[in-house]
Amino acid sequence: MIEDISAARDVALAAVAGAQTVDLLDQFVAEHLGKRGPLASLKARLGALPTVDEKKAMGQALNEATSAVSAAADAHRAVLAAVERRAQLAGERMDLTEFRRPPARGHAHLVTEAWERLEDVFIGLGFKVAEGPEIETDWYNFEALNMPPSHPARSMWDTLFVEHGAPGSTVLRTHTSPVQARVMTTQEPPIYVVAPGRVFRNETADATHMPVFHQIEGLVVDRGISFADLAGTIEAFTRAFFGSGFTSRLRPSFFPFTEPSAEFDIRRPDGSWLELGGCGMVHPNVLAACGIDPEEWGGFAFGFGIDRMAKEYHGVDDLREMYSNDVRFIEQF
Amino acid sequence: MNIILSWLNDFAPFGGATDDNIERVAAGLNSLGLAVESVQHVGAPVPGVVTARVLRTERHPDAERVHRVFLDAGDGTERHVWCGAFNMSPGDVVPLATLGTVMPDGRDIQKRKILGIASEGMLCSATELAISEDHSGILILPGDTPLGLPIMEALGVEPDAVFELDLTRNRPDCWGHMGVARDLAAWFGLPFTVPGRPLGPLGPKHSAPVTIVDADRCGRFLSVVMSGIAVAESAPWMQRRLSLAGMRPISNVVDVSNYVMLEVNQPNHAYDLSTLGGGSFRIRRAAPDEALVTLDGVERTFVPRDLLICDGNDVPIGVAGIMGGRDSEISVSTTTVALEVAWFEPEGIGQSVPHLGLRSEASARFERGVDPYVIDLAVQRFAELLAETCPNLVVHEGAVDARAVSLPDEQRTTRVRTSRVNALLALSLADSDIAALLEPIGFVSECTEPGILMVRLPSWRPDATGEIDVIEEIARLYGYDRIPKTVRKSPEGGGLTPAQKRRRRVREVLLGLGVSEAMPDVFLSPGDMERAGMQGAVVSVANPLVAEQSVLRGSLIPGLLKSIAYNESHRASSVSLFEVGHRYLPGADVLPFEAEQLCIALAGREAPAAVQVWEEIRAALGWVTTSIVASAGPGVPGLHPTRHALVAIDDGRIVGALGEIDPGVLEAFGVTERVAVLDVDLGQLLALDPEPVQFRAFSRYPSSDVDLAFVIEEAVPAEHVAEAIRVGASAVLVRLDLFDVYRGSGVPGGSRSLAYRLRLQAPDRTLTDTDVAAVRVRCIDAVGKLGGTLR
Description:
By secondary structure, chain A is of the alpha+beta class. Chain A contains twelve helices and ten strands. Chain A has two domains: 98 residues; 221 residues, 2-Layer Sandwich (BirA Bifunctional Protein, domain 2). Chain A is 43% helix and 20% strand. In chain A, the strands form two sheets. In chain A, strands 1-5-6-10-9-8-7 form a seven-stranded mixed sheet, sandwiched between helices. Chain A has a three-stranded antiparallel sheet with strand order 2-4-3. In chain A, α2 packs antiparallel against α4. The termini of chain A are far apart. The mean pLDDT of chain A is 93. In chain B, 26% of the residues lie in helices and 27% in strands. Chain B has a seven-stranded mixed sheet, with helices on both faces. In chain B, strands 5-4-3-6-9 form a five-stranded antiparallel sheet, with no helix packed on it. The mean pLDDT of chain B is 94. Chain B is of the alpha+beta class and 791 residues long. Chain B has six domains: 70 residues, Phenylalanyl-tRNA Synthetase, Chain B, domain 1 (2-Layer Sandwich), CATH 3.30.56; 109 residues, CATH 2.40.50.140; 194 residues, 3-Layer(bba) Sandwich (Phenylalanyl-tRNA Synthetase, Chain B, domain 3), CATH 3.50.40; 70 residues, 2-Layer Sandwich (Phenylalanyl-tRNA Synthetase, Chain B, domain 1); 189 residues, BirA Bifunctional Protein, domain 2 (2-Layer Sandwich), CATH 3.30.930; 87 residues, Ferrodoxin-fold anticodon-binding domain (Alpha-Beta Plaits, 2-Layer Sandwich), CATH 3.30.70. At the A-B interface, α5, β1, β2, β3 and β6 of A face α7, α10, α12, α13 and β26 of B. Chain A: InterPro entries: aa-tRNA-synth_II (IPR006195), aa-tRNA-synth_II/BPL/LPL (IPR045864), Phe-tRNA-synth_IIc_asu (IPR004529), Phe-tRNA_ligase_II_N (IPR004188), Phe_tRNA_ligase_alpha1_bac (IPR022911), Phenylalanyl-tRNA_Synthase (IPR002319), tRNA-bd_arm (IPR010978).
């Protein structure tokens, strides 16, 4: 019987070794090791053996034969599976550089982008963001800001008037400063806000001026506010927004709604200067007009253009391009 | 305003026109708030440029634009240069830039050949030597000028600098050199002195009487008669300063008048006394339609708010504070003048200037505010300077100094608290420090008690009225740069409001969906709103730049359609744009109606694209209390009448619409593609404050899917069918999808088939076939009530 077992084992091993695919291999394994396979029928003959020792010896031989076939099948299956996976992978080749397409993502407006960057810097410095209407009353745009009717300083702005109410009573705001007055008349100090927004001037558009453009305004009202706090805040903003290599300076200037007033300039790391905006201590008349006691509270304010920041940041040479809504412009950024 | 360094030096020793010193003075001016726009160095020596005599000139047959000039530079050798100017003759002395000279503009003079003949230098104009703006030809010097002399030495020109200042409205005093010098002397700690000497002995009494009729407009009018005048050219030094200051020299009388204005900031006017009717002045408001030909030869017609200078016969001879009349101008034969030195109320001048369209050096000063008490110094300087060219000048006794109620007080004071100064400027100055800072600029103070200063406000500083104005002066003279820098922190911390954060999120979602942000003009042409299908009143600009920008937009749609049309015309079709911006409509409140809108326009896309974009935004923002409502009414202006729906908040507020632009509107805007659109009131949507979504336990039991297709009339919105299914299926419906819409054979015209997949699941058990069948029947019944039949 031992010869029969050896023979069956050898036949099975040969079949397994000759299998060309995993499927065929599994088929051969089933044929040779299955319930109706030669080794199974040999196992059925064990009962007929005369002695316990013989039964034991033959049983062991049968188990060894089955194990040898299984082991050979597993080893061959691993080889065949690897070959087949290689063939599959080779057949699935893709050149991913064929699949590059222009991104479908939309493009933010440069002004919005600069606007949000500025907001974020001031938020980091502890400011909230205030908003106000674009059409304003004369009172908020001028009178509350220490410019009574027919004040000569009103001519510093080329005002666009709106036909509403009494002639001259309603304007397209010439600056974001009326938001200062709106905040001060509706909120209790302490106030730490910036007010970005759209402003309007009766000016013809050219490469550096637009009749409609954007400003950001800052206002702080608190106890014991000093000129040093103004200078320090401008300096902190300068470093946070432009980078640590930049510094700022204040130069005396004039605005009706601040006193002392200043222009502020940014010094680039190469030593050149960028004139940025105006600022100053909130004029006592402005605080008083907004119902805040100038003896108890003090404040400072500052403001500058957003469009110019976007223009400089992206090297746009003509402001009008930013408002062309031409996708050849929009899609560059 | 042009300020000349040598002129400033008449008041204090600021130093010469070396590069370093000019830079130092410019920095001082900037630190004082007298912003320097530009600095021009003039008359600096140009080594290599010497005087040379023209020996002869010669044309070359092949050279049309240049000729040959032969010169003697005093060294006995004949030099030859090519020259493009022809204004010299043999014998003239001219500036010759010899080889190797570096010109003020940086040009290097090299040996250059024209037609094979070398040029041994260059002849120079006054501009090329940076001594004046005169570039009309080569500078010609007197024939007896020694040869070979450095050019500036030959001209007697000292190096100088011109600072162009951009003055703020609060510094009218700096429209004269004296005011600038006063500030600058204080800054550098230099002694400040006013040049000139008192009037000498006066001549016999001769008056030109003055009547101020309108006392509210003219505060002071001084007239003084001067005789012995011989009209001639003024001295070269004066002509030079006037030229550098930007004024054309005319004659000694006019030049002295201008010089005094530029020096002490007091406009003044000399009338020929022989032609002054009645020999006297009347200052009064104009009569309606009264007219006068001014010095510039233009006839001006007046209204009663304009102020006139009239002669004794009440005939107008000048526009007060703005410009003199042509017929009273002094002439070459003038020998006796009546000099007007006056103070006019600023606001009145400021109103006449724009209405007359007439701005002058005088009006610019009067409307900002001139020192009413510098008049006496002005008269003194006028006489002193005119006497240089008119040695026989006599100033007559009998000057008339008419004063009226509008004349500001000479002595104004304000109380300044040292504690306030130090608190506002973060300094610790003593009373005496403050007094010392202020005194050099004429803010003389007296310490009445410790910590309190009574400060005199100088008459040349009309802007200064109260304590805060004085504090600004202290800060300015202390130096803004020397004030420390500190940072105050908000006790509350910074941040965006929830609505502001949501606005940013809306933008992000749209960008992610491939929609780009546009910023069309907020101004529209009249008729744009109507072209967009939107009738009704609009908000108009009272003083528009151009008629095409005279209306404020009542909707963002016209602007986006214009942008789409523009891009289409530049071969960019199917652009997707959005805008977040305000629209404006007439209203009855203090201000017109104004609202923040979100408008999205998708070119080349049909209405469903707008629905899809809306659903993305709605989901991202958690606006679960909003829905799309089929429009039952007459439609939405400007939108496709059968392809639109409304956006509503569940409390019933309609906040906008979506769909497609009406084809007629597209045609009117020249857009050829279809345009899907969403237009919503962003302000109302951002104000929605979604509740945090609460966790719901999901069922562990198996679910069953049921497909139901209904044939239903087109008039019944799909959303109504879905709602009926939701009600019919009740709580076991966990998901509902409209997976197919079919129109065509098998479905009657005017109807369509809507196929829904329902996923049913109970929280506590496995649904039985009987349960599912019951739900199916209830849904079919519910849709049946809407007229739908199971397909």
